[in-house]
Amino acid sequence: MPDTKMNILGIETSCDETAAAVVRDGREVLTNVVYTQIPLHQPYGGVVPEIASRAHVEKIAQVVGEAMKGQRVDAVAVTYGPGLSPALIVGLNAAKGLAKSLGVPLIGINHLEGHLHSPFLWDAPEDATYANPDPRDLGPALGLALSGGNTMWIDMPAYGRYEVIGETLDDAAGEAFDKAAKLLGLGYPGGLKIDRLSQAWREAQVARGVRASALPFIPFPKGRPRDGVTALAGLPAELCVSFSGLKTALLRFVQQHPEAREEPELSRVVASYQEAIAQAVADRTRAALRRARCGALVFGGGVSLNSRIRAVLADVCREAGVPLLMAKPKYTGDNGAMIAGLAYYRRNHVADAMALDANPCLEVGA
Ligand code: KG4
Question: Which of the listed residues 177, 304, 310, 328 should we mutate to test ligand 1's pocket, taking the one with most ligand atoms within 8 A of CB?
Protein backbone atom coordinates (compact mmCIF):
# COMPACT_ATOMS: atom_id res chain seq x y z
CA MET A 1 0.00 0.00 0.00
CA PRO A 2 1.44 3.46 -0.84
CA ASP A 3 2.52 5.59 2.12
CA THR A 4 0.13 8.56 2.15
CA LYS A 5 1.64 10.14 5.24
CA MET A 6 3.52 13.41 4.95
CA ASN A 7 7.15 13.64 6.08
CA ILE A 8 8.40 17.16 6.80
CA LEU A 9 12.04 18.05 7.44
CA GLY A 10 12.30 20.85 10.03
CA ILE A 11 15.40 23.06 10.39
CA GLU A 12 16.02 25.27 13.44
CA THR A 13 18.97 27.64 13.92
CA SER A 14 17.46 30.63 15.76
CA CYS A 15 19.93 30.68 18.65
CA ASP A 16 22.61 28.26 19.86
CA GLU A 17 21.31 24.90 18.65
CA THR A 18 21.79 23.61 15.11
CA ALA A 19 18.85 21.24 14.78
CA ALA A 20 16.99 19.21 12.17
CA ALA A 21 14.32 16.51 12.31
CA VAL A 22 11.91 14.57 10.13
CA VAL A 23 8.36 14.35 11.48
CA ARG A 24 5.50 12.31 9.99
CA ASP A 25 2.02 13.87 9.87
CA GLY A 26 2.92 16.58 12.38
CA ARG A 27 3.49 14.40 15.44
CA GLU A 28 5.53 11.24 14.96
CA VAL A 29 9.22 12.07 15.19
CA LEU A 30 11.19 9.84 12.80
CA THR A 31 14.60 11.46 13.31
CA ASN A 32 15.78 14.28 15.57
CA VAL A 33 19.32 15.67 15.55
CA VAL A 34 20.42 18.52 17.83
CA TYR A 35 23.93 19.90 17.94
CA THR A 36 24.26 22.26 20.89
CA GLN A 37 26.81 25.07 20.86
CA ILE A 38 26.65 25.63 24.63
CA PRO A 39 30.35 24.76 25.23
CA LEU A 40 31.35 27.40 22.64
CA HIS A 41 29.43 30.16 24.44
CA GLN A 42 30.19 29.10 28.03
CA PRO A 43 33.44 31.11 28.36
CA TYR A 44 31.46 34.28 27.57
CA GLY A 45 28.54 33.60 29.95
CA GLY A 46 25.96 33.98 27.16
CA VAL A 47 25.34 33.44 23.45
CA VAL A 48 27.70 35.38 21.15
CA PRO A 49 25.86 35.91 17.81
CA GLU A 50 28.97 35.76 15.59
CA ILE A 51 30.15 32.52 17.20
CA ALA A 52 26.63 31.07 16.88
CA SER A 53 26.44 31.95 13.20
CA ARG A 54 29.85 30.47 12.39
CA ALA A 55 29.07 27.26 14.27
CA HIS A 56 25.73 26.90 12.44
CA VAL A 57 27.55 27.26 9.10
CA GLU A 58 30.05 24.58 10.13
CA LYS A 59 27.42 22.08 11.36
CA ILE A 60 24.27 22.59 9.31
CA ALA A 61 25.11 20.19 6.45
CA GLN A 62 26.06 17.39 8.85
CA VAL A 63 23.01 17.86 11.10
CA VAL A 64 20.53 18.05 8.20
CA GLY A 65 22.23 15.12 6.44
CA GLU A 66 21.92 12.94 9.54
CA ALA A 67 18.27 13.87 10.04
CA MET A 68 17.43 13.06 6.40
CA LYS A 69 19.29 9.75 6.27
CA GLY A 70 16.94 7.08 4.87
CA GLN A 71 13.89 9.37 5.06
CA ARG A 72 11.58 10.55 2.30
CA VAL A 73 11.07 14.34 2.53
CA ASP A 74 7.81 15.82 1.18
CA ALA A 75 8.36 19.40 2.40
CA VAL A 76 10.96 21.47 4.22
CA ALA A 77 10.07 23.72 7.18
CA VAL A 78 12.36 26.31 8.72
CA THR A 79 12.39 28.81 11.58
CA TYR A 80 12.59 32.33 10.14
CA GLY A 81 12.15 34.25 13.42
CA PRO A 82 12.31 35.41 16.13
CA GLY A 83 15.95 34.86 17.05
CA LEU A 84 19.45 36.02 16.24
CA SER A 85 19.58 37.36 12.70
CA PRO A 86 22.99 35.90 11.70
CA ALA A 87 21.91 32.53 13.10
CA LEU A 88 18.45 32.46 11.45
CA ILE A 89 19.95 33.28 8.04
CA VAL A 90 22.05 30.10 8.06
CA GLY A 91 19.04 27.80 8.55
CA LEU A 92 16.82 29.74 6.17
CA ASN A 93 19.37 29.67 3.34
CA ALA A 94 20.07 25.97 3.85
CA ALA A 95 16.32 25.23 3.80
CA LYS A 96 15.74 27.28 0.64
CA GLY A 97 18.54 25.48 -1.20
CA LEU A 98 17.34 22.08 -0.05
CA ALA A 99 13.67 22.66 -0.92
CA LYS A 100 14.69 23.84 -4.36
CA SER A 101 16.98 20.91 -5.04
CA LEU A 102 14.38 18.37 -3.79
CA GLY A 103 11.55 20.14 -5.65
CA VAL A 104 9.35 20.30 -2.51
CA PRO A 105 7.52 23.20 -0.81
CA LEU A 106 9.22 25.36 1.84
CA ILE A 107 7.23 26.41 4.93
CA GLY A 108 8.36 29.28 7.22
CA ILE A 109 7.64 28.80 10.94
CA ASN A 110 7.71 31.10 13.97
CA HIS A 111 10.09 29.70 16.62
CA LEU A 112 7.78 30.40 19.58
CA GLU A 113 4.75 28.92 17.87
CA GLY A 114 7.01 25.91 17.30
CA HIS A 115 7.72 25.64 21.06
CA LEU A 116 3.96 25.44 21.63
CA HIS A 117 3.80 22.43 19.30
CA SER A 118 6.41 20.44 21.25
CA PRO A 119 3.83 18.86 23.66
CA PHE A 120 2.24 17.10 20.67
CA LEU A 121 5.40 15.31 19.50
CA TRP A 122 5.88 11.62 20.17
CA ASP A 123 8.33 8.88 19.26
CA ALA A 124 7.53 5.50 17.77
CA PRO A 125 7.38 2.84 19.04
CA GLU A 126 7.71 3.74 22.72
CA ASP A 127 4.90 6.34 22.75
CA ALA A 128 2.29 4.36 20.82
CA THR A 129 -0.22 5.32 23.52
CA TYR A 130 0.95 8.93 23.94
CA ALA A 131 -1.71 10.70 25.93
CA ASN A 132 -1.61 14.26 24.60
CA PRO A 133 -4.47 14.74 22.11
CA ASP A 134 -4.28 15.78 18.46
CA PRO A 135 -3.91 19.57 18.51
CA ARG A 136 -6.85 19.95 16.09
CA ASP A 137 -9.14 18.29 18.68
CA LEU A 138 -8.04 20.69 21.38
CA GLY A 139 -10.50 23.55 20.98
CA PRO A 140 -9.49 26.90 22.47
CA ALA A 141 -6.32 26.68 24.58
CA LEU A 142 -3.92 28.88 26.49
CA GLY A 143 -0.28 28.70 25.39
CA LEU A 144 2.60 29.43 27.74
CA ALA A 145 6.05 29.80 26.18
CA LEU A 146 8.96 30.09 28.64
CA SER A 147 12.40 30.08 27.10
CA GLY A 148 15.79 31.76 27.21
CA GLY A 149 14.57 34.66 25.11
CA ASN A 150 10.80 34.82 25.68
CA THR A 151 8.06 34.61 28.29
CA MET A 152 4.54 34.82 26.87
CA TRP A 153 0.95 33.88 27.56
CA ILE A 154 -0.79 33.24 24.26
CA ASP A 155 -4.49 32.83 23.57
CA MET A 156 -5.07 30.09 20.97
CA PRO A 157 -8.75 30.23 19.95
CA ALA A 158 -8.09 27.40 17.49
CA TYR A 159 -4.97 25.44 16.65
CA GLY A 160 -2.60 27.57 14.59
CA ARG A 161 -4.13 30.91 15.67
CA TYR A 162 -2.25 32.93 18.26
CA GLU A 163 -2.72 36.18 20.17
CA VAL A 164 -0.27 37.34 22.85
CA ILE A 165 -2.22 38.31 25.99
CA GLY A 166 0.66 38.59 28.48
CA GLU A 167 4.42 38.75 28.50
CA THR A 168 7.54 39.76 30.37
CA LEU A 169 8.32 43.46 30.49
CA ASP A 170 12.06 42.84 30.73
CA ASP A 171 13.94 39.55 31.13
CA ALA A 172 12.61 36.22 29.93
CA ALA A 173 12.25 33.48 32.55
CA GLY A 174 15.27 31.58 31.18
CA GLU A 175 17.33 34.77 31.16
CA ALA A 176 16.37 35.36 34.81
CA PHE A 177 17.63 31.87 35.67
CA ASP A 178 20.82 32.30 33.63
CA LYS A 179 21.68 35.73 35.09
CA ALA A 180 21.21 34.47 38.65
CA ALA A 181 23.42 31.47 37.93
CA LYS A 182 26.11 33.76 36.54
CA LEU A 183 25.93 36.03 39.60
CA LEU A 184 26.26 33.03 41.91
CA GLY A 185 29.15 31.50 39.94
CA LEU A 186 27.12 28.51 38.74
CA GLY A 187 28.09 28.86 35.06
CA TYR A 188 26.05 29.17 31.86
CA PRO A 189 23.30 28.24 31.16
CA GLY A 190 22.07 28.06 34.73
CA GLY A 191 18.42 27.00 34.62
CA LEU A 192 18.99 23.29 34.96
CA LYS A 193 21.62 23.72 37.71
CA ILE A 194 19.33 25.96 39.75
CA ASP A 195 16.51 23.46 39.26
CA ARG A 196 18.66 20.54 40.50
CA LEU A 197 20.09 22.39 43.51
CA SER A 198 16.60 23.61 44.48
CA GLN A 199 15.09 20.16 44.18
CA ALA A 200 17.81 18.61 46.37
CA TRP A 201 17.39 21.40 48.96
CA ARG A 202 13.61 20.94 49.05
CA GLU A 203 13.96 17.15 49.47
CA ALA A 204 16.52 17.58 52.26
CA GLN A 205 14.22 20.01 54.10
CA VAL A 206 11.23 17.70 53.82
CA ALA A 207 13.37 14.72 54.92
CA ARG A 208 14.27 16.76 58.01
CA GLY A 209 10.57 17.10 58.83
CA VAL A 210 9.90 20.59 57.44
CA ARG A 211 6.42 20.82 55.87
CA ALA A 212 6.45 21.59 52.11
CA SER A 213 4.16 24.55 52.83
CA ALA A 214 6.57 25.97 55.44
CA LEU A 215 9.96 25.86 53.69
CA PRO A 216 12.26 28.66 54.90
CA PHE A 217 12.35 30.63 51.62
CA ILE A 218 13.93 34.07 51.35
CA PRO A 219 10.99 36.34 50.40
CA PHE A 220 12.12 37.55 46.97
CA PRO A 221 9.68 39.75 44.96
CA LYS A 222 7.25 37.89 42.67
CA GLY A 223 7.66 40.18 39.67
CA ARG A 224 4.17 41.71 39.48
CA PRO A 225 3.97 45.01 37.57
CA ARG A 226 1.76 47.80 38.95
CA ASP A 227 -1.99 47.28 38.30
CA GLY A 228 -3.62 48.54 35.11
CA VAL A 229 -2.38 48.29 31.55
CA THR A 230 1.38 48.15 31.21
CA ALA A 231 2.80 51.09 29.29
CA LEU A 232 5.49 48.96 27.69
CA ALA A 233 3.46 46.10 26.32
CA GLY A 234 -0.05 47.60 26.35
CA LEU A 235 -1.24 44.40 28.03
CA PRO A 236 -3.04 43.89 31.38
CA ALA A 237 -0.54 43.98 34.25
CA GLU A 238 -2.07 40.90 35.85
CA LEU A 239 -0.90 38.90 32.80
CA CYS A 240 2.61 40.38 32.69
CA VAL A 241 5.76 39.69 34.66
CA SER A 242 8.87 41.73 35.37
CA PHE A 243 11.97 39.90 36.57
CA SER A 244 14.36 42.85 36.82
CA GLY A 245 13.35 43.63 40.45
CA LEU A 246 13.87 40.00 41.40
CA LYS A 247 17.34 40.05 39.88
CA THR A 248 18.22 43.23 41.78
CA ALA A 249 16.86 41.74 45.01
CA LEU A 250 19.13 38.74 44.54
CA LEU A 251 22.13 40.97 43.87
CA ARG A 252 21.43 43.00 47.04
CA PHE A 253 20.94 39.83 49.10
CA VAL A 254 24.26 38.41 47.90
CA GLN A 255 26.05 41.70 48.60
CA GLN A 256 24.65 41.79 52.14
CA HIS A 257 25.13 38.05 52.79
CA PRO A 258 28.47 36.87 51.33
CA GLU A 259 27.73 33.36 52.67
CA ALA A 260 24.95 33.15 50.04
CA ARG A 261 27.54 32.11 47.45
CA GLU A 262 28.45 29.00 49.40
CA GLU A 263 26.70 25.91 50.65
CA PRO A 264 24.54 25.32 52.60
CA GLU A 265 23.09 28.82 52.04
CA LEU A 266 23.57 28.78 48.24
CA SER A 267 20.92 26.09 47.75
CA ARG A 268 18.39 27.97 49.91
CA VAL A 269 19.06 31.13 47.89
CA VAL A 270 18.57 29.49 44.48
CA ALA A 271 15.50 27.56 45.71
CA SER A 272 13.98 30.85 46.92
CA TYR A 273 14.79 32.58 43.65
CA GLN A 274 13.27 29.71 41.64
CA GLU A 275 10.21 29.74 43.88
CA ALA A 276 9.69 33.45 43.15
CA ILE A 277 9.77 32.76 39.39
CA ALA A 278 7.49 29.72 39.74
CA GLN A 279 4.93 31.63 41.83
CA ALA A 280 5.02 34.59 39.41
CA VAL A 281 4.34 32.24 36.49
CA ALA A 282 1.60 30.40 38.42
CA ASP A 283 -0.10 33.64 39.42
CA ARG A 284 -0.24 35.04 35.84
CA THR A 285 -1.30 31.67 34.43
CA ARG A 286 -4.18 31.48 36.92
CA ALA A 287 -5.31 34.95 35.78
CA ALA A 288 -4.91 34.07 32.10
CA LEU A 289 -6.94 30.88 32.53
CA ARG A 290 -9.70 32.97 34.13
CA ARG A 291 -9.74 35.40 31.21
CA ALA A 292 -9.27 33.08 28.26
CA ARG A 293 -12.05 30.64 27.38
CA CYS A 294 -9.88 27.58 27.12
CA GLY A 295 -9.81 23.84 27.48
CA ALA A 296 -6.09 23.21 28.07
CA LEU A 297 -2.78 24.79 28.98
CA VAL A 298 -0.09 24.10 26.36
CA PHE A 299 3.32 24.64 27.94
CA GLY A 300 6.56 24.83 25.91
CA GLY A 301 10.11 26.23 25.78
CA GLY A 302 13.40 25.36 27.50
CA VAL A 303 12.16 26.51 30.93
CA SER A 304 9.16 24.16 30.68
CA LEU A 305 11.61 21.48 31.86
CA ASN A 306 11.78 23.14 35.29
CA SER A 307 10.49 20.68 37.89
CA ARG A 308 9.06 23.28 40.26
CA ILE A 309 7.27 25.27 37.54
CA ARG A 310 5.82 21.99 36.21
CA ALA A 311 4.56 21.16 39.71
CA VAL A 312 2.95 24.54 40.44
CA LEU A 313 1.32 24.65 37.00
CA ALA A 314 -0.08 21.15 37.58
CA ASP A 315 -1.79 22.56 40.70
CA VAL A 316 -3.06 25.63 38.83
CA CYS A 317 -4.52 23.44 36.07
CA ARG A 318 -6.08 21.03 38.57
CA GLU A 319 -7.82 23.98 40.29
CA ALA A 320 -9.01 25.33 36.91
CA GLY A 321 -10.09 21.87 35.71
CA VAL A 322 -8.03 21.96 32.51
CA PRO A 323 -5.34 19.51 31.34
CA LEU A 324 -1.70 20.59 31.36
CA LEU A 325 0.02 19.55 28.13
CA MET A 326 3.82 19.48 28.32
CA ALA A 327 6.54 18.20 26.02
CA LYS A 328 8.72 15.17 26.62
CA PRO A 329 11.93 16.52 28.24
CA LYS A 330 13.98 16.11 25.05
CA TYR A 331 11.58 18.37 23.11
CA THR A 332 11.48 21.24 25.63
CA GLY A 333 14.63 22.95 24.30
CA ASP A 334 15.19 24.13 20.74
CA ASN A 335 14.74 21.36 18.18
CA GLY A 336 13.78 20.83 14.54
CA ALA A 337 10.91 18.44 15.34
CA MET A 338 8.68 21.17 16.76
CA ILE A 339 9.23 23.19 13.55
CA ALA A 340 8.53 20.23 11.26
CA GLY A 341 5.52 19.20 13.35
CA LEU A 342 3.82 22.59 13.37
CA ALA A 343 4.50 23.02 9.63
CA TYR A 344 2.22 20.04 8.91
CA TYR A 345 -0.74 21.86 10.48
CA ARG A 346 0.12 25.21 8.93
CA ARG A 347 1.17 24.07 5.44
CA ASN A 348 -1.98 25.34 3.74
CA HIS A 349 -2.08 28.63 5.63
CA VAL A 350 1.35 30.17 5.15
CA ALA A 351 2.94 31.69 2.08
CA ASP A 352 5.72 29.81 0.32
CA ALA A 353 8.83 30.68 2.30
CA MET A 354 11.11 31.06 -0.76
CA ALA A 355 10.44 34.81 -0.62
CA LEU A 356 10.86 35.12 3.16
CA ASP A 357 13.75 36.88 4.89
CA ALA A 358 14.94 36.08 8.40
CA ASN A 359 12.95 38.21 10.85
CA PRO A 360 14.68 38.49 14.27
CA CYS A 361 11.63 40.27 15.75
CA LEU A 362 8.92 38.11 14.18
CA GLU A 363 5.76 38.44 16.26
CA VAL A 364 3.64 35.53 17.41
CA GLY A 365 0.46 35.28 15.31
CA ALA A 366 1.88 37.50 12.52
O1 KG4 B 1 14.00 27.08 24.62
P2 KG4 B 1 15.46 27.14 24.86
O3 KG4 B 1 16.28 25.91 24.58
O4 KG4 B 1 16.10 28.30 24.02
C5 KG4 B 1 15.41 29.42 23.63
O6 KG4 B 1 14.59 29.33 22.68
O7 KG4 B 1 15.64 30.46 24.29
O8 KG4 B 1 15.65 27.60 26.36
C9 KG4 B 1 16.90 27.75 26.96
C10 KG4 B 1 16.67 28.26 28.36
C11 KG4 B 1 17.95 28.65 29.10
O12 KG4 B 1 17.76 29.94 29.64
C13 KG4 B 1 18.06 27.59 30.19
O14 KG4 B 1 18.72 28.06 31.37
C15 KG4 B 1 16.62 27.29 30.46
O16 KG4 B 1 16.02 27.27 29.17
N17 KG4 B 1 16.40 25.99 31.12
C18 KG4 B 1 15.85 25.87 32.34
C19 KG4 B 1 15.84 24.49 32.65
N20 KG4 B 1 16.38 23.82 31.59
C21 KG4 B 1 16.72 24.76 30.67
N22 KG4 B 1 15.38 26.80 33.19
C23 KG4 B 1 14.87 26.37 34.36
N24 KG4 B 1 14.84 25.07 34.73
C25 KG4 B 1 15.30 24.10 33.91
N26 KG4 B 1 15.25 22.81 34.28
Answer: 177
Among 78-82, 129-133, 202-206, 222-226, the minimum mean pLDDT is found in 129-133
Burial of 253 (0-12, 13-18, 19+ CB in 10 A): middle
Q: Closest residue (by CA) to atom 1 of ligand 1? A: 302
Ligand 1: residues with CB < 6 A are 15, 147-149, 174, 177-178, 189-192, 195, 301-303, 305-306, 333-334
Looking at residue 352, its pLDDT comes to 74
pTM of the complete model: 0.95
- Which residue's CA is the closest to the ligand 1 atom numbered 20? 192
Q: For residues 134 and 130, what is the distance between their CA atoms, to the nearest angstrom?
A: 10
Q: What size, in residues, is the chain?
A: 366
What percentage of the chain carries pLDDT values higher than 90? 83
How many angstroms does the Cα of residue 83 sit away from the middle of ligand 1?
A: 15
**Which of the listed residues 192, 199, 330 should we mutate to test ligand 1's pocket, taking the one with most ligand atoms within 8 A of CB?**
192
* Helix (H) or strand (E) segment spanning residue 86: helix 85-102
Please give the pLDDT value at position 130.
65
Instruction: In whole angstroms, give the CA distance from residue 244 to residue 276.
Output: 12
Give the pLDDT confidence score for residue 259 in this predicted structure.
93
Mean pLDDT of 291-302: 90
The stretch 140-161 carries a mean pLDDT of 95
Instruction: State in Å: Cα 175 to ligand 1 middle.
Output: 8
Is residue 292 pLDDT above 90, yes or no? no
DSSP-derived 3-state class of residue 222:
coil
What is the separation, in whole angstroms, between the first and last Cα of the chain? 40
**Residue 74, CA distances (Å) to 3, 13, 95 in order:** 12, 21, 13
pLDDT at res. 154: 96
Give 234's contacts (C-beta < 8 A, 6+ positions apart).
none
Q: Whose CA is nearest to atom 23 of ligand 1?
A: 191
- Residue nearest atom 3 in ligand 1 by C-alpha distance: 333
Mean pLDDT, rounded, for 299-312: 97
Q: Please list, in sequence order, all residues whose beta carbon lies within 8 angstroms of the beta carbon of residue 366, skipping any fewer than 6 positions away.
A: 110
On the question of pLDDT at 82 being above 70, the answer is yes
